[in-house]
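Q: what does this look like with 1-deoxynojirimycin bound?
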Amino acid sequence: MRLVLQLTLLPILAIALLLGACKQATQKTDQSRAKTSARTSGEPWWKEAVVYQIYPRSFKDSNGDGVGDLQGIISKLDYVKSLGIDMVWLNPIYASPNKDNGYDISDYQNIMKEFGTMQDFDALLKGFHDREIKVFMDLVVNHCSSEHAWFKSARSSRNSPYYKYFHWWPAEKGKPPYRWSIFDEKGDAWEYNKATNSYYLHYFADAQPDLNWENPQLRQEIYKMMRFWLDKGIDGFRLDAIAFCSKDTTWQPLPAEYNGQWGMYYASGPYLHDYMQEMNREVLSKYNVATVAEAMGDVERVMKFVDPDRKELNMAYYFEAIDFGYLPNEYKMPNPKGYDFVAWKKIYAKWTEAFSKKGWGTIYLANHDQPRMLTRWGNDSPEFRDAASKMLSTFILSMRGTAFYYYGDEIGMSNIKFDKVEEYNDIELLTNYAQVKAKGGDLKRFLEGMKISSRDNGRTPMQWENSENGGFGAGKPWLKVNPNYTSVNVAAQEKDPKSVLNYFRKMVQLRKKERTLIYGDFTLVDAENPSIFAYTRSLEGRTILVLLNFKAVEAKVNIDGLDLSKAKVLLGNYPDAKAINQLKPYEALVLSL
Ligand code: NOJ
């Protein structure tokens, strides 16, 4: 009898001990996180954070192989700290054959060879945490790499235990229903696989097969992998292309209502939010961490991810403003007439208003999928580059929403503007170039447009100093360094108190000091003004007026009803800034009223 009792109690005891150990481990990593999250407002830390995005491939190369790496970032930890930022988002650093620079992962629990080792990662995480900087990782789980062990097994036989980790269309049923692929020359998201006599689905390149989220076993694998990183102590995830993860596996012909709007269709999978809630329940809710969703679609769709009542994710990246100003039905082809500035301001006003009621947004003007903000939204001519860079930094750091700031923008890096297709590396550009070519399109016009909008413009190596390769590293960089590194570099700007870099630091400090800039209500001022983006931020009786001239000529703003007579200049990007409503080219003024 005693023996039976012991036998039944033993497993219970073991489970209890295991649970205790897990809880302790989670508490331990949470303690290391808590150190970096002491806030006084009672609001979650991520609302107040300034995020600095590092593209590891391009930040600093420590071993001269031409590719940035983790030791390179470690050597720049003090620089990153000096910016005053609170959190770093690292683009993917996992093992990858790099068809899409790390967004094709072949092993989620290992580090990319060129970037270093797991020991390097642990040292990097500690280095950031010791400096009270949090670390976000990219979570790329809509798809993996065709080199991932799961896919290699799946593609070998329909009997593979991993076959159901992917989406397949058996060839005996004929051709699969058309789906569009973003990085496929033929634009076809189904790729035939001979060994299984079936087609697999890839919304991105054929080397990026989509994972089958409809399979609960696959979802558990993903959650396990997330716990692996969270237990190491990372502070959260940016969820790549997450809106695409759920698919309608009845594979109906595309509903007419989407009319070529692939992003919208792909972001409307039937179980998308069930999966997000499950992920929250099973993983995220157990840790003191935060998440940001790469969320496609309109306000209603995006809001679902971040409405706190739904218990899914925390912050949303949205695309309406950043994708503005391109010609319809063409790949990122800038409208030669420029963009409608008044309409652009209203997009920000609309999203900001939505997030003031519920959820929480982000503000950014660049990332690894965008060109440099200075070229696209400012002015990179020698005459205006300083003022325009500072003005754009003022915008990002004075809006409502968590600020996401891209490496290199703090010194005013600009587009490299490649002349030849051979100079590019990016799969997105190369796919689109091939498509234009196949159709007999105007390749010259295409390449001209790409000088403004292509992703590689935003991926050139960081410009540290005026020495070979801009101080990025000793070897030939994987992507050309912008030749303007001789004048646009960190070392030069460190010495100059009026530099773009030092202005950025001041603006970060101002945002931290002024709760109004974080939580204050946002109101657009002189909405129809064709040159100036003007708005107030108001909280608990304090009002801050932000005036930003987005044009290369002087402009006046109608501040109707607002009294400037006692206004104080908190920050301005011209010397001797005055609280007036007439702005110099690219002038930025932050005024307390
Ligand atoms: C979005 C990422 O930001 C982009 O760089 C990547 O190419 C696609 N998702 C596919 O992962």
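The first helix runs from residue 2 to 34. Residues 1-19 have pLDDT under 50 and may be disordered.
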